[in-house]
Amino acid sequence: MFYTENLLSKKGKLAKVWLAAHWERKLSKSQFLQTNITASVQSIIETGQQPMALRLSGQLLLGVVRIYSRKARYLLEDCNEALVKIKMAFRPGVVDLPGDHAVANVNAITLADAITEFDILLPE
Q: Could you tell me where the DSSP H helices lie in the chain?
């Protein structure tokens, strides 16, 4: 066996990467987003004293690529959703404000200076 047992255990460093390579549907969106790609690649590169089989390292790199692809897809979906919401909020011609209320009254947007008894008692 060309890898350590704790590397691919259920709580191992590369467990999610291995699952992404073999059973991509088993991982949820939050598990994909929580996976650190940089740390996973470092774990593949630096396996310790025992060498890792070429087939296993290839499968783990496939898992890293699938995780990266899914993260990029989620980012694209979020960006598209934000763009649609921004376009809907600022579309031209759709205003709920009547025409005569286009300019605000000065008294409606300014506060009057009011001195209360608390202001008088406080030292400056």
A: 15-22, 29-34, 37-45, 54-89, 106-109, 117-121
Its pTM stands at 0.68
DSSP 97: S
pLDDT of residue 90: 81
Cα gap 113→124, rounded to integer Å = 17
Burial 75-102 (b: 16+ CB within 10 A, else e): eeeeeeeeeeeeeeeeeeeeeeeeeeee
What does each C-alpha distance from 22 to 10, 18, 67, 92 come to in angstroms? Answer: 14, 6, 12, 49
- Do you know the residue count of the chain? 124
